[in-house]
Amino acid sequence: MIKQISAFAIATVLHVGAASAQEMKAFEVDEDVAFAMKLWTVLESEKFVGPNRIHAQPFEGNPPHGGIQQVLGTDVNVDGRTVRVLVKANHGGEGISVESVYDNPNKNLGAYTVMFKRENGYDDENQNWFWAKYNAKGELDKNPKGAKIAGHFVKGAEKGCIACHTATGGADLKTLTEK
Ligand code: HEC
Fold first, then answer.
1. Residues enclosing ligand 1, CB less than 6 A?
2. What is the sign of the dihedral through the CA atoms of 109, 118, 10 and 57?
3. Mean pLDDT on 14-33
4. To the nearest whole number, what is the mean pLDDT of the chain?
5. What pLDDT shows up at residue 77?
6. Out of 48-57, 120-129, 144-153, 166-175, which region has the weakest mean confidence (pLDDT)?
């Protein structure tokens, strides 16, 4: 079943510091990068990403995600486990609007940010979400230190997927886990 997830609002502007170079490097894990590539293949074949994906209604979002977004919350089977996945298509660029994304959903697609529910023990304290950021072609984006963004990213750092999602209320780290 596919349904659109409503956005939760940023209540405050966050003040975040940069993690050290050493910390940043440690975040790229070969297994996570490999898993992210496998996940992309499945998401693409299910039409949750890629130019022929199912198009959720675009809406206006908040930074750092695209100014206009499409979000799918659905279930997907990876490695024999059928679990929750949230796929956000982030659109940016000049003159972008809900209408322009609706009319041409691939023109200004900047990135896909994905949360996928891993098995227990993967990252229990953050509800076992696997985080990844891909470009429109399915290549993993990199953080400023050159580490590919895939895994429980960037766990323990002041800045990154988990830090911000927790700070903004962490609703998706809790309530969106139910199917
Ligand atoms: C600075 C804060 C911040 C950072 C960093 C961040 N997010 Fe988000 N994210 C949000 C907010 C706020 C929302 C709610 C929708 C909106 O308004 O953008 C959201 C929504 C999402 C959603 C849609 C599901 C939902 O809960 O609404 C996904 C998927 C997602 N983020 C993935 C990621 C991934 C993957 C990363 C890291 C590459 C990341 N986010 C980094 C703030 C952040």
1. 5, 7-8, 10, 14, 61-62, 64-65, 71, 86, 88, 113-115, 131-133, 149, 160-161, 164-165, 168, 172
2. positive
3. 59
4. 82
5. 96
6. 166-175
Q: How far apart are CA 85 and CA 122, in angstroms?
A: 15
String of b and e for 65-100 (b: at least 16 CB within 10 Å)?
bbbbbbbbbbebebeeeebbbbbbbbbeeeebeeeb
Q: Are strands 59-60 and 68-78 parallel, antiparallel or unpaired?
A: antiparallel
> Taking the chain, what is the end-to-end CA distance rounded to the nearest angstrom?
9
Confidence at residue 148, expressed as pLDDT on a 0 to 100 scale: 92
Q: Is the dihedral of CA 98, 104, 108, 112 positive or negative?
A: positive
Cα-to-centroid distance, 129 and ligand 1 (Å): 12
> Phi and psi dihedrals of 169, rounded to 5?
120, -25
Tokens 């050159």, residue? 146
Q: What is the pLDDT of residue 105?
A: 96
Q: Evaluate whether 67 touches 61 at the Cβ level (below 8 Å).
A: yes
